[in-house]
Amino acid sequence: MRLACLALLLVACADPPEPRPPARAPEPSPAAPTLEDPTLEDDAPPTASWPSDVEDLRASVDAFTTVEACLAGLRADTPTAVAEAVADLAYDGFFDDVCASLAAVKAGDAEACDAVGPSTAQAGCRRRLALLHGRPEACPEDRVVGGREPVCVAWASRDPSLCRAAGVDEARCRAVLSGDEGRCARLRGGDRGRCEAALGRYASALGDERRRSEAAEAEPTFTLEVEEDGQEPVRLERDVIDRGVVLEPRACRWTVRLARPMGELPVPLSPGVFTPTFFLELSVPPGEERPVRLPLNASDAVLSLALPRHGGLTSVSGAEGALTLERFETRRGGAIEGALTGTLRRGEATLRVTGRVSTFVRDLDPMPARCTESAAGEASGG
Predict the structure, then answer these.
(1) pLDDT digits over 302-337, tens only?
(2) How would residue 344 be classed by pLDDT, with cut points 50, 70 and 90?
(3) Burial class of residue 30 (count of CB atoms within 10 Å of its CB; 0-12, 13-18, 19+)
(4) Which of 126, 146, 145 lies closest to 136 in space, CA to CA?
(5) What is the mean pLDDT of the segment spanning 39-56?
(6) Helices marked H in 108-249 — which ranges?
(7) For residues 284 and 323, is the Cβ–Cβ distance under 8 A?
(8) According to the model, what pLDDT value does residue 298 have?
């Protein structure tokens, strides 16, 4: 119990992102090294907030009995220097939150996690609960990208394919699901230390079951080609969907953004000079019928362009055409595939637009029951 409580204490401290040590200037070489270059020297120690002997999460949970016993163990075994540092942070409820978090994880009670201390502690509690119990819907919201934390979702789903959504954390995400220390060994310094600690803490807690999402393993694509009489075609490609997309239920339809929101369109680089970009948001009715045809308009398929030669935004006003979805699978790891053909107008100019999208669902919230009940009633003629 002593080791279990102390390990939990240290893990709780490590939940927020930790500052990484400054990178050592690389020696001149023809190509810059990558984080996963196996030839790189490990020039930084493992992350200091993790103990040298990391206890498996399930062992910590199994050893937990009561909050009172947990508190007694922490107070008896915590090193004075650690207790002093906690006092320096003015976090008097730290031990209480550590034990309350462990109780919530063991009970699988996400609401109890939300009652724990600061938001970072709540997120850590939800993260451990989700991956231990295999409940991706319990993962905390990501602070940067939309939806829940991609690493947590992949671990809780037992699906290495979803690690694609993890960005810079993809290697650590896959290492834990594979249980392969060699994947961590290819990382550098603090990244390697965090990877090894996560593998020791979480890998066996994820069990042996694994899933596979073909759509997440395929290379995402998203291109638009814009043509105008007398002008060179403009081809726009974005990596915004490389990490998948999030489905959001809104007014009993699925809303998915396939490019930047309108408020995030670029400002002019200089007067009259814009970077080409676009905004595309779909509103897809629930149901299994495929393909789904979404007309280009202000509600079903909202498309706007920002092209240099027109000095700014070309909106959906006067739009004609449609985006046809051949696949739209409403589950994590599900495929989204479709093609767009249509025209937009700006003044006297007519812009012909064609495009193709292929990506995967990295996260979603369930459609409200009232929506599914209504759809079922309409299908039966009720």
Answers:
(1) 888 776 665 555 554 568 899 999 999 999 999 999
(2) confident
(3) exposed
(4) 126
(5) 69
(6) 110-113, 119-133, 150-157, 170-178, 181-185, 189-202, 214-217
(7) no
(8) 85
Tell me if 209 sits within 8 A of 220, measured CB to CB. Answer: no
Two structure tokens written together for 53: 């002997």
Residue 282 has, within 13 A of its CA and on its CB side, a CA count of 25
Closest CA to 237 of 225, 227, 223, 258: 223
Q: What is the mean pLDDT of residues 234-255?
A: 87
Residue that the structure tokens 């920002």 belong to: 306
Residue among 39, 33, 47 at smallest CA distance from 191: 47
Domain extents in the chain: 2-206, 214-379
Q: Locate 233 and state its tokens.
A: 């075609």
CA atoms within 13 A on the CB side of 88: 6
Give 283's strand partners.
255
β-bridge mates for residue 363, sequence order: 246
> Which is more confidently placed, 101 or 370?
101
Instruction: Report the distance separating Cα 98 and Cα 125, nearest Å.
Output: 9
How many Å apart are CA 313 and CA 306, to the nearest integer? Answer: 4
H helix or E strand, kind and range, residue 247: strand 245-250
Structure tokens at 197: 């600690």
> Exposed (0-12), middle (13-18) or buried (19+): which is 96, by Cβ within 10 Å?
middle
Report how far residue 80's alpha carbon sits from residue 88's, in angstroms, rounded to the nearest whole number.
12
State the residue for tokens 């009652």.
115
Query: Among the residues of the chain, which ranges form H helices?
Result: 2-14, 57-63, 67-77, 80-88, 94-107, 110-113, 119-133, 150-157, 170-178, 181-185, 189-202, 214-217, 369-379
